[in-house]
């Protein structure tokens, strides 16, 4: 008998970032050297917890859907005391120095060393400072670890995937067209197949789709009716929950110094 396994691989994880590295400024998150680590209780995939299928079934295919790794907040809010949520996050050092592919003479592809900086409105720029909603180094580490656990399970333990990646038929990788999800998938792929386990000269494909045909997320761009339903749902949820949450307005206002 054949067994089609569906495990939830695509790319979006918004786990909380630890505030242990908040600087004296209280508006900037600075990671403490040696303490950019993954919380032990994050609940990442573990090959030790994998429950094998009955012996009369054979695993033929696995679908894995992954949300992006830990990111910075998508906007600045409640950054002043007493909440003091950092407005700026210095937690994106990995992706700052890279080799960009540029077109040279005779249409030849060349590589240029680039150090990218995020600039604030006053012109200040510091290496490693994140943009809103950007994948952090912690997020890169957790998605890398996820890929490594997938390798332990589906390459080393079950033998479903080959030890070395040398064919596009082995696996299909696709992400939504968002930097943090593409970078998360790159990290998962690097954990699943480290550089030493990819055949020299072979380049894995990571696919993205046009927004109108995207189906890894609820696509309100490609489906007007879904957009209408999403808006109606939001309004209905607000109508139902606002009276229940009203009792907390005064407490939250004290923390945010904003009237809710």
Helical/strand content category: alpha/beta
User: For the residues shown, what is the average pLDDT?
Assistant: 82
Order of helices and strands: EEEEEEEEHEHEHH
DSSP E strands, number: 10
Give the percentage of residues in beta strands: 5-15%
Strand order of the largest sheet: 1-3
Q: In one word, what is the shape?
A: globular
Radius of gyration: 22 Å
Helix content: 25-40%
- What is the helix tally? 4
Number of domains: 2
Give the low-confidence spans.
1-24
Report the sheet with the most strands, covering strand number, pairing sense and barrel closure. Answer: 2 strands, parallel
Distance between the termini: 59 Å
In short:
By secondary structure, this protein is an alpha/beta fold. It has helices at 137-157, 179-192, 224-245, 249-256, and strands at residues 2-6, 28-29, 58-63, 88-89, 97-103, 109-115, 118-119, 125-126, 173-174, 206-207.
Please describe the topology of this protein.
Layout (H helix, E strand, L loop, with lengths): L1 E5 L21 E2 L28 E6 L24 E2 L7 E7 L5 E7 L2 E2 L5 E2 L10 H21 L15 E2 L4 H14 L13 E2 L16 H22 L3 H8 L4
Parallel strand pairs: 1-3, 2-4, 9-10
Antiparallel strand pairs: 5-6, 7-8
Structural commentary:
With about 260 residues, this protein is α/β, with parallel strands linked by helices. It folds into two domains: about 210 residues, no CATH class; about 45 residues, no CATH class. The protein is built from four helices and ten strands, in the order ββββββββαβαβαα. Helix 1 packs parallel to helix 2. The longest helix is centred in the C-terminal third of the chain and has 22 residues. The N terminus is likely disordered.
């Amino acid at each position: 008998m054949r067994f089609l396994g569906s495990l939830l691989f695509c790319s979006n994880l918004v786990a909380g970032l630890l505030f242990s590295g908040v600087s004296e400024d209280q508006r900037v998150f600075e990671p403490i050297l040696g303490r950019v680590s993954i919380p032990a209780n994050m609940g990442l995939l573990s090959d030790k917890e994998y429950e094998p299928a009955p012996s009369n079934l054979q695993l033929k295919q696995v679908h894995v859907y992954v949300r992006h790794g830990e990111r910075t907040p998508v906007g600045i809010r409640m950054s002043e005391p007493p909440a003091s949520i950092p407005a700026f996050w210095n937690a994106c050092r990995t992706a700052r120095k890279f080799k960009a592919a540029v077109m040279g003479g005779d249409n030849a592809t060349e590589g240029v060393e680039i150090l990218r900086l995020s600039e604030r409105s006053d012109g200040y720029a510091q290496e490693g400072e994140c943009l809103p909603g950007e994948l952090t180094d912690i997020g890169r580490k957790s998605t890398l670890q996820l890929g490594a656990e997938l390798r332990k399970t589906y390459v080393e333990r079950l033998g479903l995937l080959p030890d070395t990646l040398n064919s596009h038929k082995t696996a299909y990788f696709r992400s939504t067209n968002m930097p943090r999800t593409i970078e998360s998938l790159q990290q998962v792929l690097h954990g699943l197949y480290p550089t030493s386990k990819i055949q020299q000269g072979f380049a894995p494909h990571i696919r993205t789709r046009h927004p109108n045909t995207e189906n890894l997320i609820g696509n309100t761009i490609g489906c007007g009716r879904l957009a209408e339903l999403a808006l109606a749902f939001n309004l209905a949820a607000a109508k139902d929950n606002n009276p229940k949450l009203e009792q907390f307005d005064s407490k939250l206002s004290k923390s945010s110094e904003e009237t809710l």
